[in-house]
Write a structure and sequence with these properties.
Structural class: mainly alpha
Number of strands: 0
Number of helices: 5
Radius of gyration: 30 Å
Largest sheet: none
Helix content: 55-70%
Strand content: under 5%
Shape: rod-shaped
Distance between the termini: 79 Å
């Protein structure tokens, strides 16, 4: 697994690997399984993700914090309404 990570890192760092021939040469000389090489050469992202067991979907949820102050004000308003009704 570390060989593929090293190759991907190298691909991201070295500008000369933007050239198709040099990229193919780097992939062919890397010590990788044939299926990984094929996925890289074919630029088959989906197959590569499956082979590396990558979960590309990241889901995040944000829940705003609730402020206690407005709730206390609502309680006080309700108490005042009750007093008004009782005192008529």
């Amino acid at each position: 697994m570390s060989n593929i990570i090293q190759l991907l890192e190298k691909m991201g760092q070295e500008a000369n690997l933007q050239d198709k021939d040099k990229l193919e040469q780097a992939i062919q000389t890397a010590e990788l399984e044939h299926s990984l090489k094929e996925s890289l050469l074919n630029k088959d992202k989906l197959t590569l993700e499956r082979q590396l067991d990558i979960c590309p979907d990241i889901v995040a949820f944000l829940f705003p914090a609730e402020d206690d102050q407005p709730q206390q004000e609502d309680d006080e308003e309700q108490k005042e309404e009750i007093r008004s009704v009782i005192n008529g």
